[in-house]
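Question thread 4412

I'm putting together a teaching handout and wanted feedback from people who do this every day. The idea is simple: show students a protein as raw sequence, then show them the structure tokens that encode its fold, then repeat with a second protein so they can compare. Below is the first pair exactly as I plan to print it.
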Amino acid sequence: MEKKAIETEKIPLTFKPSQFKLHTFHSEVADRRIVYQVIKMLTSTFICVNYENELTFSDLSLVLTNNSNKPISTQLIGNFSEDSTKNMGMRLCKKLKKNIYLSCNVNNDRFTLPLVEKQLVMEMNKCPDKF
């Protein structure tokens, strides 16, 4: 069998700047500095919350918008029996009206998480173009 050479035309590559927008801000909760990193994408937003000196990635929830007013969520990484990150992600999803990836790697207690969410909402109100 004879192999035929396939000629391809060379198409020049054009590099475009990333459409992702990165936003970082900080807050203090219980005498600990917390860093918030936000990546704004076209139809979704990735939010990662960590203690400043303990950058980890041990928790990740995905929340998707749908036609009804009730987003759907799932835990991708972390404690599958704990719903606090998913619930926070659902509230943020409703506010932003877009899909949310939320990685919240701070103490999961009744004091820390509400303050983290409050800070996120304040930042969303202050800089809506970053989310």
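The second pair follows. I'd like the answer to focus on this one:
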Amino acid sequence: MKNRLAPLALVAAGILALTGCGDPEAEARESASQQAEMRAALEASAPRTVLVEVEPVRTYDFYERLGDKPTATVSVNTSEGTEQADVNLPMIDNQADPGATYSLARGEVLSMSAQIEEGAAGILCRISVDGTVLVEKTSTGRYSVVSCAATIE
């Protein structure tokens, strides 16, 4: 009876060794790998902070002397809809921070356009995600229009 179980025990030991059962290091590596995959999936689905900025190009001296700011009409389009406003340039939010921020998911598209109304020789638009500029464009000339669009990644 002893001799018959010996080959069976060897086969069982081989299977355990090949599958990693009972090997704490292999189980820890697999668990760490699964945790890393879950973190990556969560990060990929998390909304991104998108900054939209509009600035004047070459402000006219007489506007600066009078204390006036250049103005523009700005339209921003997201999956939530379109916002349009007449703003002083450079555009700032309610807390006096540059631009306007949006929270968008990866794969969403943000597009915008801006037209200089008065006070500058042109206009610039910029779209950034987490401090990285995705697109920046400039248009010059009286009443010039600039457009920017980006897919959030």
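Top answer:
Good format. For the second protein you could add a caption like this: The chain has two domains: 2-44, 48-151. Strands lie at 48-59, 71-78, 81-88, 100-104, 109-118, 120-129, 132-140, 145-151.
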